[in-house]
Amino acid sequence: MKRSIFIKHALPFIQWYTLMIFITIAIDYFLHKFQLVLNGSYLGFTGTFVIILSFIYSLKKRKILKSGSSKKLLNLHEYLAWAGSIMLLVHAGIHFNAILPWLAILMLLITVASGLVGKYLLKKSNENLKQKRQFLIAEGMDKEEADKKLFMDSITVDLMKKWRVIHLPITLLLVIFSLIHIVTIIIFNT
């Protein structure tokens, strides 16, 4: 039985994003309940470090880092960035007194969303294209004919591989807002 497109493609994205928000609220709740709110502020340092650590994958992708499996480093990037994002969201808490941290958090949420979209949509699109090709070949079509028939699907998947064109500038904006936030904290708290 075929699963619906929603269950197959959108649900994993929604689950990870919702889980991130839920975990953030739960941690924040317990920090407030046990009067450990100050500890949440230290998660800013930890979360930033964890996210920076996640960029090991980017070093491998750009061939700066020679060792390590690209697939394992991509998985590490995804989970570290996700966990670091939770820490930063807890660090941010709900404070309406400063716009810069809110811009940084907004960019963080958009960056995580774009990363998850890229992860799930690209993965699923590649799988779908492979399945269609295998089906057509199993139906008796030769590989060249199947590729001609799937030309537009192949183009679509190739275009989706370029989702990083959107993800990278969003990440850069996150870095800029975060750096400005860190610098202003250093300047005004010393």
Q: Could you describe the 3D structure shown?
A:
- The chain has 190 residues and is an all-alpha fold.
- The protein has 2 domains: 1-94, no CATH class; 98-190.
- Helix content is 83%, strand content 0%.
- It contains 8 helices and no strands.
- Helix 1 packs antiparallel against helix 5 (99-138) and helix 4 (70-92) runs antiparallel to helix 5.
Helix and strand arrangement:
Blueprint: H1 5-33, H2 37-54, H3 56-61, H4 70-92, H5 99-138, H6 143-149, H7 151-160, H8 164-188
Major beta sheet summary: none
Whole-number count of domains = 2
Parts with pLDDT < 50 across at least 5 consecutive residues: none
Say how many strands there are.
0
- What share of the residues does DSSP label as strand, in percent? under 5%
Report the end-to-end length measured between terminal Cα atoms: 63 Å
Order of helices and strands: HHHHHHHH
Approximate shape: elongated
Would you tell me the overall average pLDDT? 85
Concise overview:
This protein has 190 residues and is mostly helical.
Task: Based on the model shown, name its key terms.
mainly alpha, 2 domains
